[in-house]
Amino acid sequence: MINKQSLWFLTLFSLILVLSVYYVTMPSELLFTDNGHYDNSESFVIEESEVLTALRIEMEDQRINLMKELKMVLTNIEATVQEKNNAYEQIKLLDVLKGKEELIEEKLKKTYELNSFIKIDNNQVRVVVASDKHDKKLANDIMRTVQNEFDEKIYISVKFQP
Description:
With 162 residues, the protein is of the alpha+beta class. The chain has helices at 4-25, 29-32, 48-75, 81-112, 136-147; strands at 116-121, 124-130, 155-161.
């Protein structure tokens, strides 16, 4: 006699088997297209927002890894008080930098109606602007706007990304 557990196993196994056979036997053109329309001449165009999103994701991944390392120091029993204090200060600094970057991005969006990516690293600020227009005056204005957010003199680079 077959119990319920065996019946469920056989049912799920046969479903997986049927789907696997279907996947293997279907034409390969259907795997790469929408609704079976296959065109070799299609090319992928990266939207300007995708470039900025990719930069944000990359930076976020780096920060998440750094935060994990710092939290490991904080929870490590063998770490000294000084090491734990340094890790805590670095975590606070990362939060402040993230807030400042978001503030500058919003300010640039309101002032110049441009999407941008901001990365603050020590006394350097990297600005990537999603724009086809490479204007020296606009870059200069962006630099002034960013500099106004800081008390001390900093190095600012502006890059226009189409």
